[in-house]
Design brief:
It is built from 11 helices and 7 strands. By secondary structure, the protein is an alpha/beta fold. The protein folds into 2 domains: 110 residues, Rossmann fold (3-Layer(aba) Sandwich); 110 residues, Rossmann fold.
Length: 230
C-alpha cells in the first residue's frame, strides 16, 4: 500500500499547488484517478506571521509540530511542508518530530546537483533570501548561490505577501521577477530557485530567462516517490 502523505501547510496557494501536483502526477504511476492517501493541516498564516515578525522561530516550530501531531493522528506516515520560509525552524522541529519529514530545500539542492547547476539565484520571502537555510544546505552540496539586491528583495517580498499568497497574479509583478532573474543571470547564476511555493504560479519556465527550480513541484514529486517506495 502507498504511504499516507501528511502536508503541514502554511500559506494556502503554495499548499494547494503541492497537493494538486501530487494528485495530478500520481495516475501516471499508479493508474487512472489514483493517488496516495493525503491529509493536510494548516494553522492560519497569520499565526505563523505573528511569530516570524518577532523572529520567534521556536514559535514557528511549535505550530509545525502541532500540525505534525494532528497528521500523525490521521494516520500519516511521513510529513512535508510546502513553505520555504518556515523551514528556517526545521532544526527545532527535527528534534521533536513524531514522524519523518521531507525537506524542501534539500529536494531543491538535490535537483540542482542532478542537473549540474553551479550557482543558483535564490528568490523567495525576505526571510528565505536573507536566512541561513538555503546557504547552509547548498554549501553542503558544493553549490554556490546569490541573492537579489536589497531593493529587489523588498520588491519580491512585497509581491509575495500582498499578492501571491492571496491568489493575485499580475503581469507587472511577473515583470519584476523577470528583471531580477535577468540581473542574476548577468551575475553568473545558471538557474533560479523559486523559493516561495507561490512563485511558480507566476513565474514559469517559459517566462524565465534562467532554468527554474520549482520548489513546490519538486517537493510534491519527492513526496510521491516516498509514498510509493517499497
Amino acid at each position: 500500500m502507498p504511504k499516507h502523505i501528511g502536508i503541514v501547510a502554511c500559506s494556502a496557494e503554495g499548499a494547494a499547488l503541492c497537493y494538486r501536483t501530487i494528485c495530478a502526477e500520481a495516475p501516471a504511476l499508479m493508474g487512472r484517478h489514483t493517488h496516495p492517501e493525503i491529509s493536510m493541516h494548516t494553522h492560519p498564516l497569520g499565526l505563523y506571521m505573528e511569530c516570524i515578525y518577532r523572529d520567534d522561530w521556536a514559535g514557528v516550530a511549535e505550530l509545525m509540530l502541532s500540525s505534525a501531531a494532528k497528521l500523525k493522528a490521521c494516520g500519516a506516515d511521513f510529513l512535508l511542508s510546502p513553505d520555504n520560509t518556515i523551514h528556517r525552524a526545521f532544526p527545532l522541529v527535527a528534534e521533536r518530530t513524531p514522524l519523518p519529514w521531507l525537506h524542501i530545500v534539500k529536494e531543491v539542492a538535490e535537483e540542482a546537483r542532478r542537473r549540474g547547476f553551479k550557482s543558483l539565484a535564490i528568490t523567495g520571502t525576505r526571510y528565505t533570501m536573507e536566512g541561513p537555510t538555503y546557504p547552509e544546505i547548498l554549501a553542503e552540496c558544493g553549490i554556490e548561490h546569490r541573492i537579489p539586491t536589497p531593493l529587489d528583495r523588498g520588491r519580491i517580498n512585497t509581491i509575495i505577501f500582498d499578492e501571491l499568497v492571496n491568489g493575485i497574479f499580475r503581469s507587472e509583478s511577473l515583470g519584476v521577477f523577470q528583471g531580477v532573474i535577468e540581473r542574476m543571470k548577468a551575475e553568473g547564476c545558471d538557474a533560479v530557485v523559486l523559493g516561495c511555493t507561490e512563485i511558480p504560479l507566476l513565474v514559469t519556465p517559459e517566462t524565465s530567462s534562467l532554468p527554474i527550480l520549482d520548489s513546490t513541484r519538486l517537493l510534491a514529486r519527492a513526496a510521491l516517490r516516498r509514498a510509493l517506495e517499497a
